[in-house]
């Protein structure tokens, strides 16, 4: 049984450090070292020019009622993942694999997760699975998180802090797996392929807000790889709202809906930290059920 990993919000505000984009013909688009690109793939190329060993991609999960707009997962699968063929060895997904040795605990934790995932689009988990399948077809080995029975017990014993325990586990296990895979690849020297993580846009953060550090593997992996780490958040502009969570993000004051039609924005808030805003208007047909409501 695969259950979706818990993630909250679009991620905390990164440090306001600035650095330059790699050379290129992209033109500027405002603060936080913003640049415009003709496509998401070209924006990704600017990130890959930094030659990371680990590319940790974070998204805001599609919510219920957003079915008429293509999710970040779908866009990554179709527009960005093919660019990583031959350059990436592994893809670690924020999906949990149930442990057959403790099925009762797994089922109880799955019920607790519904509190976190109840507002997410029903297609979220299927799109993560589709991403893994697409990666395998491109020669990129997909992986999921494999919590032990002890990890499930910790969540169940956490009582009202069960969600926090889930977030802690996701960050810890993802960081462990990324470092194992990256260390294996480092043996290939300058020809080493990168490892990709894909999940919620909080766990990959290099500059988490005070008090949230334990829920991010970014700094730990960055230090262990000698700075060869890139955190890339994917933003679907139609999902951005005027709420406290969104306003807390460093790039939000520079974001204007409908600006730069057809262009991909890439913000660079700090060393190793990137925010890719997809072009607006990439909508998918609404499901038949939704159309009748």
Q: Flag low-confidence runs.
A: 1-19, 282-293
The tally of beta strands, per DSSP, is 10
Largest sheet: 10 strands, mixed
Our count of helices gives 9
On the 0 to 100 scale, the average pLDDT is 84
Order of helices and strands: EEEHEHEHHEHHEHEHEEH
Q: Which structural class fits the helix and strand makeup?
A: alpha/beta
Strand content: 15-25%
Description of the structure:
Mean pLDDT is 84; it is low at 1-19 and 282-293. The protein has nine helices and ten strands. It has one domain (2-6, 28-261). Strands 1, 2, 3, 4, 5, 6, 7, 8, 9 and 10 form a ten-stranded mixed beta sheet that branches. Helices cover 33% and strands 19% of the residues. By secondary structure, it is α/β, with parallel strands linked by helices. The radius of gyration is 18 Å and the shape is globular. A hairpin with a 6-residue loop joins strand 2 (27-28) and strand 3. It has helices spanning 40-48, 72-80, 103-117, 124-137, 149-157, 162-186, 218-224, 244-247, 288-292; strands at 2-4, 27-28, 35-37, 54-59, 88-97, 141-145, 194-200, 229-235, 264-270, 273-277.
Structure characteristics:
19% strand, alpha/beta, disordered N terminus, 293 residues, 10 strands, disordered C terminus, ten-stranded mixed sheet
Compile the SSE list and pairings:
Blueprint: E1 2-4, E2 27-28, E3 35-37, H1 40-48, E4 54-59, H2 72-80, E5 88-97, H3 103-117, H4 124-137, E6 141-145, H5 149-157, H6 162-186, E7 194-200, H7 218-224, E8 229-235, H8 244-247, E9 264-270, E10 273-277, H9 288-292
Parallel strand pairs: 4-7, 4-8, 5-6, 5-7, 8-10
Antiparallel strand pairs: 1-5, 2-3, 3-9, 9-10
